[in-house]
Structure formats: C-alpha cells, structure tokens
Fold this protein.
Amino acid sequence: MLTYADIEEIYSQEKNRKNIGTLQKIDENFYSDFTRIYNSSEEHKDYLGKLGDGIYTERVQKILIHALRASIGNIKEPPNMAREEKEIYNKILELIKTYKSELLFEKEKNNTDKEQEKKLLEVKVRFLNSCPGIVGDDLRRYGPFKDDDVVLITEPLAKILINNKFAELI
C-alpha cells in the first residue's frame, strides 16, 4: 500500500540527477493509489499535489525521450512503466512515427498532387496578336508569341489575355 513516505521517496528518486533518463520502479497501480491518497487527504493535499505533479512530469519527460529514441531506432520500451504510462508511451511513439512519415515521405506526393492540380487549371489559347514575353500568375515566363500561336497557359492568365483581346480560348 502506497504511503506518504513512498510518494516522497519516488519523487526524490525521479528528480535525482544520477537517474536521468531512467524510470524508477513504481508499483503498477501507482497512479490509482496516489489518487486515492490525494483525494482522502485534506491537510497535505497541496504538498501531495506538488509531489504528484513532479513525479508525473519527470516520468513523462523520460517517456518522451525514450519514445523519440525508439522512433529513430530499434530501442525497446523503457522498463518500470506503470500501466497508464505504457499507454502514453505507445500513443506518443505512434504519433511521432506518423508525423515523421507524413513530413518526410508525403511531401513528394503532395507536390505531385499540386503539379497535377496546376495542369488541370491550364487552358489552351490562340493568340490573335503578337505579344511579348509575359510572366504568368504561376511565375513562369511565357512567350513571346506571334499571331495564331497556340499555347497552354494558366486559366487566370488566359482570362486576362482574352479580356484584353490578345487571345481566344480554344
């Protein structure tokens, strides 16, 4: 059964500089036992709250570091985690892996989608009059064009040229 002295000892061990990165062994039911003691205490509630917050913060920091390292290589989950901490660890690890995959390997797909989208927004026009080179809304250089040249350009640029009687839509 968890006592005040146990909570103080766990807090002290988690904060100890010699134990950086290492989760101290705690009972599997630590968090439920802590909650029970915290809720039943009136005069030490603030002190217990600070100890509990300190223990949780120290342990979650260590879990975060372990999850980050595990996402980089084949590192086993850290020992001495409580049941609730294992759930936190697994969710964090999954989140890191998902974002890593999306950020590093989905960019090419997204860029390809954007290029296809741009191509879908291009239209074919025939120039009615000669036109010097122009820069389109996509920042690409177009032209120069001669009478009756047929080209593929972005839809917004085509609208401008058509409205100014430089080109017609084909």
Summary: The first helix runs from residue 4 to 15. The beta strands are 122-127, 134-135, 141-142, 150-154, 167-169. The mean pLDDT is 87. The chain has two domains: 4-105, 114-169.
